[in-house]
Amino acid sequence: MTTTYKQFNIENSIYVFCVEDFEIFKIPQIEDVESVLQEIKAEKEKSNSTKNKKKNLKDDFTKSKIINTIGIDIANSCTLNCTYCYISASKKPRKLLSKEKFLDILNFLTKEKDQPITFYFTGAGEPTLNFSLLKELPSLCKENGFDKCSFNLTTNGTILTKEMIEFFKSNKFTINISLDGDEKINDASRLYHNGKGSFKDVFNNMNLLKENNIEFSCKTTVLPDNKNLAEAFSFFEENKISFIFSIVTNSFDNHFSPNIEHLKNFEEQLYIIIKNYRKLIEDNHKIYATKLIDDLKRIHYGQVNKIGCIASRESFFMGIDGSIFPCSYHSSEDLSVGNIYTGIDYDKIVKNNWYAKPVDNYSTCKVCWMKYLCAGSCFAIKWLENKNTEEPSEYLCKTYNIYWSAIIKLYTQLYPVIISGNNINFNDKNSENQVHYI
Question: Over the Cα atoms of the chain, what is R_g?
Fold first, then answer.
């Protein structure tokens, strides 16, 4: 396999990023880049030839022997009317999953009962609308022999009560709160049906979680045209709230579509954000943007990812009527791959390519410098954009190019801090050196 590189110009120096293992080489002499790069390639390929190299993953999609992650549409509809909601949950008639239907789901999963399994509740509506069922789930699982279950809940946080909070704590639910930033930023998109902003209610309920010593994190949706995006990140850092972020995508009913031209603003805002984080990390502040820290560590430890996700392999999403879908994002009615009474139609999955293939099996992705960073991206979003999971999403590709270029730049700037072993965010003194100086 030929080693390939991506070149970056950072602070008057040339860096080359190795696509295959994320190693980075710094080349101070700009005029000598090509000859030096050829020497690096020759040395690396010579070294690789003496090692037991891992073979590329084959596209050997088969029926999963184990299903370990199950999403469940426990409550259709939502308390909010978010402008960018990809499933338009607020427009759905309110329906609640019944106890009987959940038991049918457990019956469908009988073969998995002795294995660890995670149930997650998100994607189709606000799950706390069906708290009467939620609070029965742990006991129902145990009564039916599912002794190794864990529960993951994503909520908009608008209707949390003391009873709910005590239940989540006693049953060790993993809690994620959807929040986009401070009041001005959040209430630009996350609104009640009457047009009122949701921030104050959500923030007050988050404080209740803190008072009850319940760990939680926030899920933040990034809009590419948000000119205050840096302020959103600062809000979470200043309030010491852990959060992950993802960029907004198309809705299934086409009521919302991000403008690819707005990615220029996203790039400008990300420049400010990266600059801010460089200073925060150098000053040894604990960072609450967990995705950002994790991605820096991915570069440092060379953690390549060759398959985008486990949807349709080890993970499925159950609709409120018992329909089965690859994931919560890929869950409109025409995308069903079976139901809990007749089983999973794996032939339909394979025929439509409704699963993530090894990234090198996608002709466009295999020559991309980001292929082991994004792993081909989300096949559901590719289907939504192209009606074809083999073709990349132009919008996501441009987004990832902006994001990963910024992360690599930040990594090279923070490299001395990372390897020092003295930073609160990177305290492994035995970390492997990923930047080489030529």
Answer: 23
- Least Cα distance to 274 among 260, 256, 287, 261 occurs for 287
| pLDDT (0 to 100) of residue 48 | 64
Residue pLDDT, tens place only, 195-240: 999 999 999 999 999 999 999 999 999 999 999 999 999 999 999 9
Question: Which amino acid type is present at position 41?
Answer: K
Read off the pTM.
0.92
CA pair distance 228, 394, nearest whole angstrom? 24
Domain boundaries, the chain: 1-55, 315-392
Question: What is the Cα–Cα distance from 286 to 289, expressed in whole angstroms?
Answer: 9
